[in-house]
Amino acid sequence: MRKMIMVAGLALGAALVAGAPANAELGCQCVKIGAGPMCTKDIADCTFKAGGLCLAPCEYQAPKMKHKKKKA
């Protein structure tokens, strides 16, 4: 029974790693009471900055810089 559980866990881990895109970082799905879930960079950002609880991993993409257009 123990061998079956170990094999199932390894197969699940391999499926999750193989299906992840190469350019996405692993983040933390942060949940706060009264607000919707959001993906943060890591557990510390979720706990200390957002005041939430990390529930599951997610694909974190850093916010892109917005360039302001100069007026002519």
Keywords:
three-stranded antiparallel sheet; 72 residues; single chain; elongated; alpha+beta; 2 helices
The helicity comes to: 25-40%
Radius of gyration (CA) equals 18 Å
Helical segment count: 2
> What overall geometry do the principal axes of the alpha carbons give?
elongated
- Sheet with the most strands: spatial strand order: 2-1-3
Q: What string, H for helix and E for strand, traces the elements in order? A: HEEHE
Please identify the structural class as seen in this structure.
Answer: alpha+beta
Please indicate the percent range of residues in DSSP E strands (runs of 2 or more): 25-35%
Main sheet characteristics? 3 strands, antiparallel
Q: In total, how many beta strands?
A: 3
Measured distance between first and last alpha carbons: 73 Å
What is the average of the pLDDT values? 76
The parts where pLDDT drops under 50 for at least 5 residues are none
